[in-house]
Amino acid sequence: MRALASPVLADLVSWWDGMERDVVHFVTCKLYHPWLDPIFLGVQSQTLAAILMGALVVLLIVVRPRRGVRLLLTAGVALGLAMLLADLLWATIDRPRPPQAYDVVLETPEDLAACAARPDALPLRMHRARSSSFPSRHGLSIGVLVTSLLLAWRPVGWIALVYGAVAAVGRVYAGKHWASDVVAGILIGTALALLAWRFLPRILARTRLGRWMHEEPADAAAAAE
């Protein structure tokens, strides 16, 4: 039985690796267009992300203070847990990033322009990173922040969702991560945000802050609009 399971597992791993490489080649090469570079690569800027997310949080705090405070607590706790979990997983699962997994990496403008003829090579559009690939920290952050904003106030949440989707594709487009790294990061971040949003008010229920965050029915109805 073990002898049979070993070839099956090897075939499954080989199939998964091939699929991951097909996705990376499609996004980094076939999806490429000069006018997409500023979009998919520009959103990788941590400064831009901090400004956008900060502006959405400030807007929420001004318009709905109670929800804004709950958002800050939810995102802060969930993001802290996500980064701790990322460190743990990076130390446990040493998955090579695409630039370390490919034998040939295309980096010059001439090589990148001819990437369609090199499906065996990786088009790399940003600097190399040496840390483990799984999970994507950007994916974790996207999952936490977008989910927290959607739960707090849908109008700002939809704005964050569009930005997060572009940033997620951008991680693969830049050649920084496998698609599964980003998807896993988003799913983990989303789960942590959902848990924090639900249970933090209960944990803080007996504190002054917890009582102040407790919403009146009118607040809840307005937030669902």
Topology pattern, helix = H, strand = E = HHHHHEHEHHHHH
Helix content: over 70%
Distance between the termini: 57 Å
Shape: globular
The fraction of residues in strands falls at: under 5%
What strand order characterises the main sheet?
A: 1-2
> What class, by secondary structure content?
mainly alpha
Low-confidence residue ranges? 216-225
Task: Walk me through this protein's architecture.
With 225 residues, the protein is mostly helical. It contains eleven helices and two strands; from the N terminus they run αααααβαβααααα. The protein has helices at residues 2-30, 37-40, 46-63, 65-92, 98-101, 109-113, 137-152, 154-173, 179-203, 208-213, 217-223; strands at residues 105-106, 122-123. A two-stranded parallel ribbon has the order 1-2. α6 links the parallel β1 and β2. α4 (65-92) packs antiparallel against α7, α7 runs antiparallel to α8 (154-173) and α7 packs across α9. The chain is globular, with a radius of gyration of 21 Å. The termini are far apart.
